[in-house]
Amino acid sequence: KAKVAILISGKGSNMAALLYASRAADCPYEVVLVASDKPSAPGLDLARGEGVPTFALSSKGMQREEHDAAMEAAVQSSGARYIALAGYMRILSAGLVERWAGRMLNIHPSLLPAYKGLDTHARALAAGDRHGGCSVHLVTAVLDDGEVLAQTPVAILPDDTAVTLAERVLIAEHQLYPRTLADWVKRDMDAN
Ligand code: GAR
């Protein structure tokens, strides 16, 4: 199976979705590392409980390049060929992104190219959109700008708040990310 490292900053529900999907016999990837810039990220406990190696390093007081280098070293020593960003809330340095070009994916809670960056659900609501949604895309040096691999639109309901919409989009994320990552690594492995 293709080895994947997952980077998280928080709850890690997408990481959990990726991990549990990987346990299916026909899944083409396995999770070899969960790494975080937040040592207290709840997702790290879940990963440990599931027997997945973890790495945590706070970015406090570190230069971006220095922190990225330490994260990348942990990923390299895990043997991962792919990186899945799953609620990793730090911008990565250009060098790191370039080294992993085509092998680093991210999930973003909007229908890209709409609403790059933060507060995606509040912005969709304020604009009167009929749909929010989520996108899985390749990571490039420009924030939330790489090729979109797959998306799921999620209907906005009359009483939605940013919180209720986020909850529903998250359900869609948990379906979309494992399937898209599986398709991508299958395609990439066949090509290489
Ligand atoms: C998810 O909604 C993800 O799309 C979003 O953060 C949440 C993480 O939840 N990511 C971004 O906003 C990236 N800029 P999780 O930790 O439960 O997976």
UniProtKB/TrEMBL annotation:
Pfam families: Formyl_trans_N (PF00551). GO terms for molecular function: phosphoribosylglycinamide formyltransferase activity. N(1)-(5-phospho-beta-D-ribosyl)glycinamide binds at G12, S13, N14. It catalyses: N(1)-(5-phospho-beta-D-ribosyl)glycinamide + (6R)-10-formyltetrahydrofolate = N(2)-formyl-N(1)-(5-phospho-beta-D-ribosyl)glycinamide + (6S)-5,6,7,8-tetrahydrofolate + H(+). Its EC number is 2.1.2.2. Belongs to the GART family. This is Phosphoribosylglycinamide formyltransferase.
